[in-house]
Amino acid sequence: MPLTSIQKQGIIKEYQTVKGDTGSPEVQVALLTGRIDRLTDHLKTHAHDVHSRRGLLSMIAKRRRLLNFLEKIDKTRVTVIAKKIGLAA
What we know:
By secondary structure, the chain is mainly α. The chain has a single domain, classed as Orthogonal Bundle (Helix Hairpins), CATH 1.10.287.10. The protein contains four helices and no strands. Helix 1 packs across helix 2 and helix 3 packs antiparallel against helix 4. The radius of gyration is 14 Å and the shape is globular. It starts with a helix and ends with a helix.
């Protein structure tokens, strides 16, 4: 399920590293997490929606790759973003 433009703008403002930042790994991970959360809710009510489930798994894999990339760059940034989006305990 796509995010509305207002939701996207809110996520971007919250996770951007500098003003106007839309492409940093932190922003990308946060946007993917928003889409994953919405799609997970959709799949709870529509359990047999196989095509959406495949898209969900693809988004989860992409988020994992972004986090792995960010971990190679700076480990502290990964822990901060993971705590903010609720991936780390």
